[in-house]
Task: inverse folding
């Protein structure tokens, strides 16, 4: 059985001008010089829908009036539909102020019916609109539950068809548009609710009215199929939002920017994409004193389709910029996108978080501290430790450091292993003893942190000394490179342990006849 959520927007004409998050005050929308919708402050002053302009001004002289704009309402409906596409690909426009969502296949993905219901209500509210939601097994039934008002309609959720039929029977007749032309005749024969109309003989009702009435009732009660024109996400995302007031502080723009990000989230989910780079344009005054828009570009280290992460980054960036002039509109464009990555196939979560979590952390720190103040290790093709261990700003680092720093042995290292072990055994007084019983080695073959410059070690009893005699452990590593840039390196690296059980990374310089030892790194 299918389940539908109907999203009814009773204050859409007003909230296209004054969203919920704008400053309160007496506002009203006019259609043919009559009040169509009014804000809470205007209603408290006595303004009511249907009043003429002069009557509303007499009751509340401070009321600010707007002319109804059908184009703005359609754009607002499209923005809400785009956001709701993240929950289901089947979103349809039922009327100018109503959206229908088929959530039959989305319940398990979003944690069940109640949680999905709350998520939809929360997103519509954060977009700046007042929503009245209803749930039913039929789209027309959900639409009627969302439209109806009064004491007879207390619960707007019906999961079973029998429950829906019982609640539809109590809805007054004037809420069904197909019955409006016959309202006087229906009232004259004593029918007050849809249940009363359904109890009339179908043949007689068809003769007195038309088939549209029967079709509307059958669709609402689940006795006839329903057809829809589904909303399709555009191929590119570029959305503009006109602000209700001039904004002079950058941090205050986050409310409007998040409205655009919610739309982008739905668009990405519908197109199965992830965003890599987006641009937020802050538009200033137009006309003779026009100022070019301020462009705020976000380049993500890893493509994402989650609104919360982009919102955090944008909040940090907005907190660090200074506006050249008040902002009157926002425009958000997804300039670079890629295919959405498939979810991880691992049964258990990765310890310490996933690479995506690390990338999001680096992006958040870069947005807060500046990309030049956050450094990341960048790989460089060089065997010399001091040359391959480079740090670059997070925005310039091509590749993040691997989660595991365990190195893999090269063929050259394995080829020299036997010779180096023999050279390290005590065949002469000038060589160093390696005990046959080796202690447990560090987890990594190379330390993560190197000294700024190697420290030369003294020799005591033919052994390198650093606070105490060092004992060599593990297999050595030979490095011979750098002849092409005049910085030749000929070294044998060893892992050594001191008397305090600390681990050190030392090497023996093999240039010349003298044997010199250096400390190059420390293991944590």
Result:
């Amino acid at each position: 059985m299918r389940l539908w959520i109907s999203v009814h927007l009773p204050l859409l004409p007003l909230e296209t001008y004054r969203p919920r998050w704008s400053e309160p005050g007496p506002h009203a929308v006019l259609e043919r010089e009559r009040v169509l919708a009014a804000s809470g402050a205007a209603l408290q002053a006595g303004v009511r829908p249907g009043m003429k302009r002069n009557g509303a001004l007499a009751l509340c002289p401070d009321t600010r009036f707007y002319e109804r704009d059908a184009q703005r309402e359609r754009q607002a409906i499209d923005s809400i539909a785009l956001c709701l596409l993240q929950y289901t690909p089947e979103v349809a426009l039922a009327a100018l102020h109503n959206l229908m969502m088929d959530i039959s296949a989305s319940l398990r993905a979003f944690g069940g019916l109640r949680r999905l219901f709350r998520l939809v209500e929360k997103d519509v509210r954060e977009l700046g609109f007042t929503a009245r939601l209803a749930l039913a097994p039929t789209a027309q039934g959900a639409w009627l539950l969302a439209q109806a008002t009064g004491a007879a309609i207390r619960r707007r959720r019906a999961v079973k068809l029998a429950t829906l039929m019982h609640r539809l029977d109590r809805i007054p007749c004037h809420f069904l548009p197909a019955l409006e032309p016959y309202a006087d005749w229906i009232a004259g024969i004593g029918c007050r609710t849809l249940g009363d109309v359904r109890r009339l003989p179908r043949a007689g009702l068809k003769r007195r009215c038309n088939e549209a009435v029967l079709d509307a009732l059958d669709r609402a009660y689940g006795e006839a199929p329903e057809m829809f024109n589904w909303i399709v996400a555009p191929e590119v995302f570029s959305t503009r939002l006109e602000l209700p007031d001039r904004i002079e502080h950058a941090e205050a723009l986050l409310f409007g920017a998040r409205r655009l990000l919610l739309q982008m989230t739905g668009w990405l989910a519908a197109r199965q994409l992830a965003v890599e780079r987006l641009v937020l344009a802050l538009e200033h005054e137009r006309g003779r004193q026009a100022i070019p828009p301020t462009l705020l570009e976000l380049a993500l280290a890893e493509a994402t389709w989650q609104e919360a992460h982009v919102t955090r980054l944008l909040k940090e960036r907005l907190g660090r910029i200074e506006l050249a002039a008040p902002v009157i509109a926002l425009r958000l464009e997804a300039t670079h996108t890629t295919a959405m990555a498939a979810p991880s196939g691992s049964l258990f979560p990765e310890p310490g978080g996933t690479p995506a979590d690390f990338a999001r952390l680096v992006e958040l720190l870069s947005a807060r501290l500046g990309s030049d103040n956050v450094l990341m290790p960048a790989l460089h093709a060089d065997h010399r430790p001091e040359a391959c261990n480079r740090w670059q700003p997070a925005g310039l680092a091509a590749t993040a450091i691997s989660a595991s720093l365990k190195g893999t042995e090269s063929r050259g290292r394995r080829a020299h292993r036997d010779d180096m072990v023999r050279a390290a055994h005590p065949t002469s007084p000038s060589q160093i003893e390696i005990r046959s019983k080796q202690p447990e080695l560090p987890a990594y073959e190379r330390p993560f942190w190197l000294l700024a410059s190697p420290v030369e070690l003294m020799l005591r009893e033919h052994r390198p000394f650093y606070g105490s005699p060092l004992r060599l452990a593990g297999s050595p590593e030979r490095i011979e490179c750098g002849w092409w840039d005049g910085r030749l390196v000929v070294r044998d690296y060893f892992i050594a342990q001191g008397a305090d059980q600390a681990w050190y990374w030392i090497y023996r310089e093999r240039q010349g006849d003298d044997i010199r030892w250096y400390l190059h790194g420390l293991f944590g």
